[in-house]
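Working notes for the structural subgroup meeting. M.R. asked for a predicted model of this chain before we commit to crystallization trials. I am recording the input and output together here so anyone reviewing the notebook later can reproduce the run.

Input as submitted:
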Amino acid sequence: MQPRARFGAAGLLGLAAALLVTACSSPPTIVPTSSPGGASPPPSTAPTLTTPAADACAVQVLNGMNEGERVGQLFLVGLADDQLGPAERDAILTDHVGSVWFTATSQAGASAIRSVADAVQALTAGQPPGSGDSGVGLFVAANQEGGLVQALNGPGFSRIPSALAQGSIAPATLQADARTWGTQLKKAGINLDFAPVTDVVPPGTDQANAPIGALDREYGHSPAAVAAHATAFVKGMSAAGILTVAKHFPGLGRVTGNTDDVAGVADRQTTSSDPYLAAFRAVIGTRVPFVMVALATYTKVDPKSLAAFSPIVIRNVLRARLGFAGIVMSDDLGATAAVQGIAPATRAIDFISAGGEMIISKTVDVAVEMAVALTSRASSDPAFRTLVNAAALHVLEVKDRAHLLTCSNP
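Returned structure, recorded in token form:
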């Protein structure tokens, strides 16, 4: 995601849950080992999975959702002009979109942003009992990297230096600063930051690298420098209660074009065992909850697919080789030039099929079109429904840990 405003075993258990889905038309029921009160689970003829008590809340919520509500949890949709307009409201209430993000570069200040964030959260809090997404809070995100990519400004927000400037200070100092910036986001109703950029730009190539280097978005020019400062940023934000996103896997530091503006961007150097991936490996080691996958092609990894649509990139490299167990998020599948030649339905289906779990779309109409496509495909393809339900459970698990589920806050 570019500047034009833009967990361990639990994740594996989510996948295991999905693998138990049958071909029946109703969503499967997944039964935890015990209820929160310690009673035995009710009998069920549906497939069951014994799940740690820590995940019981997420399982409970998932079992109360229909397929459309589960699909809605996989979307993070833009708030046009940073407002909760009729289209965004309808997407949340009718299409069950489970998360939103502030898309504009705003000078409105923390109080104004908080008002919008509170209005967003109030929508699901006010859903009638029995709705599957009643009481399920939303991830409310912003692109708050610093420098040229700081979406939220004005009273209540510090001016954050660019990542390149952040990379010049001691990691311990950066961690403390990130905690301060995260506390400001938290007070403004934000719980997810589309940062840190974990891409490595080779020395001397900044100006040729349109998406990262030319905009001072990198923490440094070596995997070690980027790793030290990106992990400090993640730790500081986490201490403030803010979830973070390492981006743009497997790295945009060696490309020339910006995928927001042009199609056909390719990296012809990065390999599946590339030394530059060490920066992502380090951030994954901090248990960063999200990794955003790029919309470029990596010819030495998978020359046939954009990274976001590549099971080789997502399953083989990010999951198996680097050990990432959090949520795999797309870059913007709604408005970026990189995907404009691909039908929205195909974008969404290919991303989930490749192992992706959460779709960003700046535009509501495209998001709704993608959600309809996923729901339709899940209703007719049991194997695909398996992937959708696993992804939805994984999202709910992270929401559980972020205290965004009603049963997380008894």
